[in-house]
Amino acid sequence: MIYEFKGFIPVIHPSAFVHPLAAVTGNVIIGKDVYIGPGAAIRGDWGEIIIEDGCNVQENCTVHMFPGKTVRLKESAHIGHGAVIHGANIGRNVLVGMNTVIMDGAEIGEECIIGALSFIKADEIIPARKLLVGNPAQVIKDVSDEMIAWKTKGTQLYQTLPGDCHKGLKAVEPLTSVPENRPSQETLYSTWQDIRGQ
Question: Within 10 Å of residue 173's Cβ, how many Cβ atoms?
């Protein structure tokens, strides 16, 4: 669902994958190896949205702005399920947790990690490598090398997903029973709790 708006047609790199159930409108530029999940709304109707290489915007996210503003997701930004980015700029290799809301004029420094269900107020400036949680979000500590390595590995998994989707995602009729030879899935990534428990 890609829409022209007032003469602006979205620009999407061929290696990116935009799910057919996502909506991308107007003045939007999407870079290499970007994943846009089903239900995501990327609305460049009143301003510009730039999604740099290697980002992912997961299911049911909204990216929008007040008129005349630009939203930029810098390289490898990772936007979790249901998050709202409204008129904010997200730094390189940032993790935005599920159902987080980041308001207008906020600037998130590179390699920050924002916990699920957090709220970043308008015009907040967050320095690089901070861990934030809560409503309103508060910095609770610096992001360690171990934490950012874990985040980066998860984002790299999403960076392979567009290619996998181009090759293997297709609409089908469902099966009516589980086949005996149904394959098992490999474990590609561990949760932070699993990593910490080792």
Answer: 5
